[in-house]
Amino acid sequence: MEIERARARLFAPVDPASLAVWRVLFGLLMAVAVARFFAYGWIEEHYLAPRVLFPFAGLEWIRPWPREGMYLHFALMGLGALGIAAGVAYRASALLFLVTFTYAHLIDRTYYLNHYYFISLVGLVMVCLPLGRVGKREAVPAWWLWLLRAQVALVYVFGGVAKLKSDWLVHAQPLKIWLRASTDLPVLGRFFEWSWVPHAFSIGGALFDLSVVPALLWWRTRPFAFAAVVVFHVITRILFPIGMFPWVMISGALLFFPPDWPRRLAAWAHRGARVEPPREAVPVRRAWTGPMLAVTFLAVQCLLPLRHLLYPGDVMWTEEGFRFSWNVMLMEKDGVAEFRVSEPATGKWWVVSPSKYLAPYQVKMMATQPDMLLTFAHFLARDFAEKGHPDVEVRVNAFASLNGRPRQRLVDPSVNLATVSPWQGTHTWVLPFQDVAPP
Fold this sequence. Notes:
Elements: H1 2-10, E1 13-14, H2 17-39, H3 42-48, H4 67-86, H5 90-105, H6 114-128, E2 140-141, H7 142-162, H8 166-169, H9 175-180, H10 196-217, H11 222-239, H12 245-253, H13 261-269, H14 289-303, H15 315-318, E3 333-343, E4 348-352, H16 360-366, H17 370-386, E5 393-402, E6 408-409
Antiparallel strand pairs: 1-2, 3-4, 3-5, 5-6
Helix pairs in contact: 2-4, 2-12, 3-4, 4-5, 5-6, 6-7, 7-10, 7-14, 10-11, 11-12
């Protein structure tokens, strides 16, 4: 009986109208995101100008195309996004967008962002679900809608759980740093000078992330929760340069309203016109394959944020298991790094400044991320080998500050990083975090 009840709920026919609105909004927002890469010159800056890239381990084969190819790549990405919005060759458009978007953002982990990860996950869901059919007044199985709701919910739930740390809740870090840097904002800026405001923002942010999904699910609190979503994401967009992510999350929150809300809204706009229910789809065999794959997909996402428990040390210091884990806006790190290359056979040595090879933003991000320091050390070993010094050793003097604390040494300066495998854990060469209360 329980299985039949679950089957009935999963395959219950629901109005496709909200899915149609989501598809259109998502496609249009992604088209705007692609246009921003052209308008701001980010294709050149991120992919064509850098001399050194920082690929993910095992994905070194993902490289930028030659100049015209990279621009064509983003043009195809935009075409896929517009195809999603219009529902034209929907599945092919969704697949085109997913492949081009994910490929581009795996080229260099310097620019990794949680919301890029989220977009790739949503893109995969949209490829698998035949959302090109929605909007044709034909009912769809309920589990399609619940899968997209769950994908949005995971961001909030894990983002909230990740904030249950003393830095965030007790010390209001890193918000204290960020708000102090935003005191020149019109209207809001003067409030950021008050000492209690970062604490209120931190506690409020954690409570929002942890409570917004239950509040969106309950019809009585749903309107207030959606208003909170809008206010929260508009404020974060004002304060932080996080691109289209706030608008995507606001659009995602609309999925929690009754599936027929766009029809009801249209009827209200047309002065009470009758809401026509969707036609029920042609009966199909209610196979469990789709829901079971969806559950597996979501389960993997629930396990990935926990993988940092397998590694020693503070995850915000070593960053092992930090990416792909919804650690949203948890830390502010800054640092400096200087590399020393030596040739034991001749006794020669060189001090290398990363700025000689890297763009300023790459220098900034690499200085605080151990795996990027390791990648650059390997690059230097190869670069010196090409210049006639095949057996050099590479060490680094790296100091980093976490959430306003005094800088401390990040990497053991005695370790020859040229011999360290990227698959090796950081516990042998990243120094333990010396925790002191942040300011």
